[in-house]
Amino acid sequence: GKRKLTFFGEQPSRFGVIPRHGNNSSVRWFEAKPCFVLHLSNCYEQGDWVIMDGCIQDNPGKPAVGVQGEDAHEQIRRHFDKTRTRPHMYRWQFNMRTGETREGPLEDEVSEFPVVPNDIVGLPYRYTYNALFEPGDWYIGGLKRFDVTNGEQSIYKFGERRYGSEGAIALRPNPKSEDDGYVLTFITDLNANSSECVILDAADVAAGPVARVMLPGRITNGTHACWVEADRYRGERV
Question: Which end of the chain is more exposed for a tag (fewer CB within 10 A), N or C?
Answer without folding.
Answer: N
